[in-house]
Specification:
alpha/beta, Rossmann fold, eight-stranded mixed sheet, two-stranded antiparallel ribbon, NAD(P)-bd_dom, NAD(P)-bd_dom_sf, oxidoreductase activity, acting on the CH-NH group of donors, NAD or NADP as acceptor, Polyketide_Oxido-like
Amino acid sequence: MDTVASLTKNVQGGDTMRILLIGATGMIGSRIATEARGRGHTVTGVTRSGADGTTAGDANDASAVAALAAGHDAVVLAITPGEDGMLGTGRAVFEALRTAGVRRLVVVGGAGSLEVAPGARLVDAPDFPPAWKEGALAQAALLDLLREEAGDLDWTYVSPAAEIAPGERTGNHRRGGDALLTDAEGRSRISAEDYADGLVTELEKGEAIRRRVTFAY
């Protein structure tokens, strides 16, 4: 049976998923953990240190991630780019999922690769903050890698709005694709709590397989 079809049936039937969350204590990862557990899912949190009740693990170690992923229904990758970018991490996680027999992968992505016009990315705009550019380009490269090398996995790349910060969970937000979403005032923003709500809903429903989605107000 197809992995995504199975997961969707489980959620609709009232069952729960077993989720391996890599990067479980970050600003976004911690909120994904809270949202998923609040819906009754079992979350195994992974961090480099193993602190705060998480399991120690390195996302760049394919063998270690495969061992952790075994027996889970899905893996969520919620880490920020390191000094070497995201390509090595991406390839290690892809290999780990294949070894563990887990097809469902949801990636916490960046907003920089969202389009502000056809073929024009936010990260390439002249006024894009220089301090954010390296990380945005690394996240964009990971999206390209998913499209090029992970066609055998049921992946979804989830971009936030241009502005994301801790706030209120309203459950009232919009869902888009490759274009940057803005509100009536021209701002692109979302709380980390509402982003987590959107991501976990996508994880459950599996409506954007091998595609990118974005959430914003």
